[in-house]
Prior knowledge:
Helices cover 38% and strands 16% of the residues. It has helices spanning 7-12, 18-30, 44-53, 83-100; strands at 35-39, 68-75, 78-79, 105-106, 118-120. Strands 1, 2, 3, 4 and 5 form a 5-stranded antiparallel sheet that branches. The chain is globular, with a radius of gyration of 13 Å.
Amino acid sequence: MAFGLSSKSLKRLEGVHPDLVKVVKRAIEITPIDFVVIEGLRTKERQHYLVAKGASQTMNSYHLTGHAVDIAPLVDGQASWDWKYYHQLAPAIKQAAKELGVDITWGGDWRKFKDGPHWQIPR
């Protein structure tokens, strides 16, 4: 089954590094599970709010420079936070990055503060 990015997801990719946008656009073509872009480029104010809330641990986020996106799998039309779906989605994003020659890091592979939705490329 082929999926496509919604207009909302495309809007959320505005300001994101072109290489990362290409990876997301390729990944939606090959993923076994639909997904939505939750967030791309962030303001310092938004980042400060997320740090204060405990949803992020740094004011040096890659989101501030457009080098990160947060993506959630869609299950029955709703964003899911269940890790089993992130593990189904991750191989497609990694494959897309490999095909395009883009170095990418998944927050789900981090040892500390695992972040399933988070994907970033080097600055």
